[in-house]
């Protein structure tokens, strides 16, 4: 199986590449523009494997994508490339529209032309898997149920609106042109190699440096958390066995308030890492002005993927978080250069929600 992963130098994409290359039957081609969020260091352990190849490039370049599809005889596209940080989408939405909407459009066009050119057996095998987020469903009241696959879209932020737009395009290319697609919408991920502007790594690393731990508003916003390797397994399963034209919700069934996440990180660190000037890392928690348009809650009903494909997360939030903290404690070589760039003025770390 020749698999094109877009955005494979990012947080989830790199976890997916590491997971896919473990099967020698897979050849993984990683197409990534290497924006601020893409980091080749996340792929160090697989970069020399014979069934892995990295190509630096932009999904907005339809001709370049078309060349890769032909040259590498791609059977499956797993599309993760995106601008992903909600706070950045509020400060500057342009790149979100370009990559998430226009980039997905260009990729779909290249994929459609390529798919139409394939002989019957290869066309039968071909699959376009679009990776998306629970945020497309919008603001969920605290006392409501969870999002299922039929929940109407109601995105609140420029990020979630751009992802919703890309989901609609992918569905339209299936309904109108017959492109064999599958879509997944997943809740908040956490785990190793997570860029330290997102909540979990930001809190771990600020705590280790005894810096304030910023929490938006009162910290009451609720997210559902999934360990990134559980997401990678779900993606492989859906890409291989999901029904064409369908979407699948993926989540950890681990709803936590943002404040609860920060407090749990502090409690684990209190046990693992000596403090210099504090009784507890919790003493560093600092409430800051809320994000505009901040959705109260996201929660995923994952009955469909469990019933149809037999997927369930392996990590609980507490075990996954402890593994993640251990990884950050042991892997300063990965995150220290990123933190140092931020001290030199690159934007990082104002934000507190994923
Ligand atoms: P990330 O920001 O860590 O990585 C995105 C990657 O895409 C980077 O390597 C970047 O260089 C690359 N990229 C950006 N623009 C590109 C372009 N024009 N052409 C080629 N590459 C480009 O993101 P992530 O957190 O790994 O998320 C991956 C995907 O999963 C996204 O589509 C996101 O919407 C979705 N998702 C993320 C989460 C989460 O919690 N992180 C949850 C659900 C869904």
Automatic annotation (TrEMBL):
Cofactor(s) the record lists: NAD(+)
Pfam hit, one:
GDP_Man_Dehyd
List where the protein spans the membrane: none
Q: What is its EC number?
A: 4.2.1.46
Q: What's the catalysed reaction?
A: dTDP-alpha-D-glucose = dTDP-4-dehydro-6-deoxy-alpha-D-glucose + H2O
| Domain NAD(P)-binding, residue spans | 4-323
Q: Which Gene3D superfamilies match?
A: NAD(P)-binding Rossmann-like Domain, UDP-galactose 4-epimerase, domain 1
Q: GO:BP terms for this protein?
A: nucleotide-sugar metabolic process
Q: Does the keyword Iron apply?
A: no
Q: Which UniProt keywords apply?
A: Lyase, NAD, Plasmid
* GO function term, MF aspect, one: dTDP-glucose 4,6-dehydratase activity
Name the family the entry cites. Belongs to the NAD(P)-dependent epimerase/dehydratase family. dTDP-glucose dehydratase subfamily.
Q: What is this protein called?
A: dTDP-glucose 4,6-dehydratase
The species this protein belongs to is: Sinorhizobium mexicanum
Q: Write the gene name.
A: rfbB
